Amino acid sequence: IQNLFIWNRLFLLVFCNSTESLIYFSLAVLQALEDGLKRADADPSVKAVTICGENGKFSAGADIRGFSSPNKQGLGLGPIVSLIERSEKPVVAAIEGIALGGGLEVTLGCHYRIAHVQARMGLPEVTIGLLPGAEGTQRLPRLIGVPAALDIITTGRHISASEALKLGLVDEVVEENTVEAAIRLANRLIGQPLGHRRLSLKPVPKLPNMEAFLTEALVKVKKRAQGCLAPELCFQAIKAATEQPFADGVRKERELFNILLTSGQAKALQYAFFAERAVEKWTTPSGASWKTASPQPIRKAAVIGLGTMGRGIVTSLVKAKIPVVALEQDLEYLNTGRKAVMLLLEREAMKMEQGGQTLDFNNPARLQFAVDFDVLRDVDLVIEAVFENMALKKEIFNKLSRICKPEAFLCTNTSALNIDEIASVTSRPQQVIGTHFFSPAHVMRLLEIIYGRHTSPTTIATAMQLAKVMKKVGVVVGNCFGFVGNRMMFPYVQQAVFLLEEGSRPEDVDQVLEDFGFKIGPFRMSDLAGLDVGWRSRKDQGLTGPTLAPGTSARQRHGYRYSPLPDLLCEKGRFGQKTGKGWYQYEKAGGRTAKPDPWIHSFLSEYRDTHQIKTRFIDQEEILERCLFTLINEGFDILAEGIASGPEHLDVVYINGYGWPKHRGGPMFYASTVGLPNILAKLQKYSEIHPDVPQLRPSAFLKKLVAMGNPPLNDWMSYLHRQSNKL
Ligand SMILES: CC(C)(COP(=O)(O)OP(=O)(O)OC[C@H]1O[C@@H](n2cnc3c(N)ncnc32)[C@H](O)[C@@H]1OP(=O)(O)O)[C@@H](O)C(=O)NCCC(=O)NCCSC(=O)C[C@@H](O)CCCCCCCCCCCCC(=O)O
Fold it and tell me: Going by CATH, does the domain composed of 301-477 fall within 3.40.50.300?
């Protein structure tokens, strides 16, 4: 609390944390809020109270870091909200900026709420593995009804002031000074009865079919949660509000809150929250960072190639209000691409309209389609999104280098190719950078930003700023085959295929990984992405196809184990969903419902016979460990090579780009919860059984961390260059 103003007969309470631009409750703020309320109550000259934030922001709720501190800051908020509500003097909340979590719960204790038109509100506790624990699960349904409260609390979504007004969450929305409006209202309320404004005294609005509604809602909540505990416990707390008196509901809320607080999931989700913010503060091994580089403005961008990726990228740029030129090789491709882009944009515009926003894309100044490279002369940044082929990319970059203005940045959307090689054909390698988008590019949040040997800090800063403007999570990584995401994915998928050789079926492997929490298992994922993509890359690498040296062993490459299974499927035209057959069968080409395919089962058994592999039963533990621990093992190598500056980077990549369950905190966080000595022991065991699989050999960095006593994840990087005499 910084300011306590006595204004006329009105007591104005401003709560804030003076050292932060964002207000979240620390113990000091809570204490000051309580003291202020008690003083206001005791002072007869005070007739009404207004609660607001400082610097135009109401509150971001409890201090999330406090939940993992021993004295659990913020837990005393519920009684303070009750204290506000019990006040005999009218209390009005003036909501500006944000009122989230405990911040919004404070306003629910107030007798009236006024919001600024640009304010955002929400109860996002579910996203950090908790539930609104300051009586919010009991007050919100009483205020806006069960369906709306369930939606807001179980999704954690932010709502606009206009939606809040429609729902009855706020009493008034103002465009001018919110605090002054709140003071005016508080003045008018002096002496008026408040009983009907105390939410704890109100019943939860009835629904004609409450029981049926709740049963159906629970099914939806569980389906969406995919193994995450918090949404279901949020549901239970709201259900308690429909069944029990307020005080009992509050007790239930506390009980459920405590279960979540002590669950590993809350810890993982809170780690993920801070990890995302940590990667925003990028650095490179040479010391470049936001401190050393300023992003350049992107007033106009271009996208080359309107295939699946290019279409999504154009859509993202238009949504970010950056004027775009979309380029294709000829009119036929251009027209197909244009139609697809317009369809995507129409769908996005419809979605945005539902949220009260508009998307302007029919204006040629915002979106232009062309086939002539000359139109790229004035753009500030180009994103090349053509086919994954080095020769083609080099040809394009050479052309761009000659046509684009000297200051323009040249980005390549590649999932694995060498950025330095692409940059080498330009006269400006310092302005060349990899921007690896994930499909569908207008939906997926991840953007891997890959700097090459010559990429300048300004170029990195500009790409990071672009990610931010496009509402994506940019993760800066170094240049190596597959970068971070795909490099860690290769051993994971490789193990999944080896497991098929040894006795598993695609649906067994997928099931185990989906039960773990992945949105989609590796075989369903391959079918979705198209098996031909990897086949083409393996042909380019000379691992299969006509360039393979005659006499090469079917199951070995360069002396190591290799599985030709995916190649054999492609040779039979089984490319996945697009051809209606892959690791599964689909209702038709382009179908989406994967069904186990008896053909695959007999194909696998014939394959094992041909190669004299004895089919064995493989349990869930082995499937999980072999797939996940090889992926994590690669992560340790990536960290040791300086490709990423910390384990958080790998985790943010996996959560946002590869469907890793967020409530498990990312692969490296998961490794820290399993314990590095356990991972090392399992890798050693599997590596002894499969000596021809180098990916199972424990990373030297993993071994070092174990030898150093399994330090906490935050300290891993500090051990990278330390000497260990135990190794
Ligand atoms: C607010 C945002 C939307 C802002 O976004 P923006 O993009 O503008 O900025 P950043 O996200 O980069 O944030 C800037 C900066 O601020 C940090 N930060 C933001 N919010 C918080 C926060 N709430 N806590 C800590 N730090 C925060 C962020 O990390 C950045 O820092 P940096 O160093 O990187 O610059 C966006 O930030 C956002 O969405 N924030 C999170 C909002 C949120 O989730 N709020 C909910 C918090 S949880 C909560 O409020 C819980 C309540 O329900 C009250 C709980 C009371 C519990 C009582 C239960 C009793 C049970 C009894 C159990 C007994 C147990 C026992 O006895 O042991």
Answer: no
